[in-house]
Request: fold
Amino acid sequence: MSDLKNDRFIRALLKQPVDQTPVWMMRQAGRYLPEYKATRAKAGDFLTLCKTPELATEVTIQPLDRYPLDAAILFSDILTIPDAMNLGLYFSEGEGPKFSKPIKTQADVDQLFVPEMDGELSYVMDAVSMIHRELDGRVPLIGFTGSPWTLATYMVEGGSSKDFGKVKGMMYSQPKMMHQILDVLAKTIIQYLNAQIAAGAETVMIFDTWGGALSTRDYKDFSLNYMQQIVDGLDREKDGKKIPVIMFTKGGSQWLEAQADIGVDALGLDWTIDIGEARKRVGDKVALQGNMDPCVLYSTPERIRQEVASILESYGTGTGHVFNLGHGIHQHIDPENAGAFINAVHELSEPYHSK
Reply:
């Protein structure tokens, strides 16, 4: 990765030696930053912000201008794929994403298609290539997607859900139909992530936000199985360099061993598991990313440092750890506290890496 001025993040994902534990934050380009809010106001609405490559580039780079982060993540949304499948995505104020044409019947499922990466989804690739060009090797760029199961929950529920009654109802009563949806999504995601890699993403991440809502058997059948297919279909090398893959199932730490077997380079962890315990369980199979509770950032810089120190100590010496929050940063966090977090990771992690 010689063209990267800071390749600490890639090296840690590949379990190679680093000088400090790399750190980035899920949702680091987001509503907790005043500069993001200004750009979002300029865009007029969230979808316009996502679909305008110049603005997506601007907000992707904003946190890097403020903090010494070790990676940038594409500013986009996991629902770009179902949006490109003509399900009528819109965002209602205070209620999150909604679909005007949710999937209810076999006829709805039969109409699903793999969108064109250089057609309906070209704005995502345009953003990736523009961000990559602007970064100019400063740090690696992370491309991403939602998992098939997570995307399907929104597509069937018609938006967010607390109990997943519609999607689980379909899964239990019409499993073939559910598998058909997931199969189209997996095929689409393989093309989607490979197109992001071709456009300049140096690593990719699969966000399985709602996998933790499933039982063990259903998680393996309806979520992990499809993420395995995606991982098998990805371009894992570009220009002679490895493209690491990260997978994160929120609420899924009970299945770490199964996750480590699907061929990813790293697993994301939420804050409900001790990272030292997770490391023991997965051994040398994968790197680990995580896992501070985002709510710690509501406290003080001193308390944040204590939490960082505790997680570093639990992980222990050696490489294979990318420090992150256990989920996305909250919108009401003080940006100063986010800065204290990032600085604490770099400062306190040095003793854990041999010179």
Remarks:
- The first helix runs from residue 8 to 13.
